[in-house]
Amino acid sequence: MTVKQIENAIALLEYFAERQAPATLADIVRDFGWPRSSAFNILTTLVENGYLYEPTARGGFYPSSRWMQLAHAFAEGEPVPEPLHAIIADLSATTGETVWVSAPSGLYALFLDVIESSAAVRYAAKPGKRVPIHITASGQALLSQMPARDRDVLLRKASFGNWGANAPRDLEALEQEMQAGRARGWFRSASNYSPDLGGVAVPVILRDRIFSVTVAGPLFRVAEKAEAHAMAIHAAIARELGADYSTRTLRDITLPPVS
Question: From the CB of residue 207, how many other CB atoms can be counted at a distance below 10 Å?
């Protein structure tokens, strides 16, 4: 269940980020199709709390620097560990595909840090994106390192049957995918969530938290490179954190030899 007023406030912030310019009440009513009173109430609330201001009189509203202050505070409190950013920077250079770091967020894998491919046709993603934790390679890598009880509680809430053509259709199929991923040392999806897109992911335990590192792109380009990309992830982790790091920190997974 979602709260409509919060959804509208988030949509308004994304609107300003894309617009890159102030907007008047009339602009917002026209572009969103909201009742004038609803748009006015949202704007007034954000202005009164210091999150919007008018750069010039009657020139429209724009987000204030208070958002930046909040973002900096969030980042300082729980930044993406620098070694993980170094790993995906390494992978971006070696694979040329979109790479990211994910963490578990309920029934989703949440993208924390992303480097998009420069290719014209690519997996498009931004930090903050969420994908189903049980359907995707990123999510299955995270699930693989959760305590069994926590994983079971989570998966009892998961839904099946409404995802991509190759997505697991029930818990039994998911367990088979997970077992295959554990046996080879990496997890794979191919049109599991997004049609014609696929990727591979490897779990990483850092600071007692579970993360996954993923390389993904259009299937016509990455399908035959799945194993090579998985080995590239393992190699990048070894270069950044140490040759035996995954062996010491991961459980219930067969790790391939890294050259």
Answer: 8
